[in-house]
Amino acid sequence: MTSLQDLSVVITGASSGIGDATARLLAKEGARVVLAARRADRLEALKADIEASGGTALVVETDVTDRAQCEALIQAAMDAYGRIDVLINNAGVMPLSLAESVRMEEWMQMVDVNINGVLYCTGAAIPHMISQEAGHIVNVSSVAGRRLFFGGSVYCATKHAITAFSEGLRMELGPRHGIRVTCIEPGAVSTELFQAIEDPAFKEAAPEFKATPIAPEDIAESIRYAVSAPSGATVAEVLVMPTDQVR
Ligand SMILES: NC(=O)c1ccc[n+]([C@@H]2O[C@H](COP(=O)([O-])OP(=O)(O)OC[C@H]3O[C@@H](n4cnc5c(N)ncnc54)[C@H](OP(=O)(O)O)[C@@H]3O)[C@@H](O)[C@H]2O)c1
């Protein structure tokens, strides 16, 4: 297995949920983590927790919808640690709504965060990983990247895009440059993600969701598994769902 000791790991969306849990777990394993999101107060509190446990963390306040901020994030990681071993594109939003409600701002926000943010960060990291002839890009897609659900037309479209982008990256960057690419596809996870749902029409019409969400730490474990695989082995795709989630 690959040791995580001293690996330089950039995590977007580290201020809550899956990103927070992943930062804590990888830092505990010895990785030097770069924490990115908009809520700097939360990132500072996370950094303090990690350092109190003997870990190493850097906070870079970042809005991933801004290309220049994504480039500054990657540069800050390079300046601090001299390399980027792992980029975890985890930041995401999910304001589900009915298509008929035409909530254009929310649609654009999902495209900007869930797709463009991933492209900006990945595009900034690729040249460094090519120079290193090594690296690992972990994209947090979703079960929504494999199938559609009611009220998720745009969210599922963004996650399908990330699943496709991940496979395309893997096909090119692995054989040509030794860079690994992993697509993580969580089912329902207990995080703040659902709090952004505001469309009254969706709330009224949505079918009851019956699964018992799993913990963000469960997804963090999947990411740890992918990152710590032997360097010649790429864990290309991981779908992790609550046992009682049907689809
Ligand atoms: N929870 C689930 O059931 C589930 C299932 C499948 C996939 N996922 C995916 O898992 C990933 C993490 O979500 P989560 O469940 O952990 O939800 P969460 O707790 O709401 O975390 C979302 C993270 O994204 C960050 N973010 C949002 N907009 C951003 C922006 N413009 N710039 C930078 N960061 C931004 C948030 O930080 P700030 O607000 O501080 O910027 C936060 O840290 C997402 O990609 C989501 O689609 C979640």
UniProtKB/TrEMBL annotation:
InterPro entries: KR_dom, NAD(P)-bd_dom_sf, Sc_DH/Rdtase_CS, SDR_fam. Residues 7-187 form the Ketoreductase domain. The keyword Oxidoreductase applies. Gene3D superfamilies: NAD(P)-binding Rossmann-like Domain (3.40.50.720). It comes from the Bacteria. Keywords: Oxidoreductase. GO terms for molecular function: oxidoreductase activity, acting on the CH-OH group of donors, NAD or NADP as acceptor. Transmembrane segments: none annotated. PANTHER family: DEHYDROGENASE/REDUCTASE SDR FAMILY MEMBER 11, DEHYDROGENASE_REDUCTASE SDR FAMILY MEMBER 11. Belongs to the short-chain dehydrogenases/reductases (SDR) family. This is Oxidoreductase.
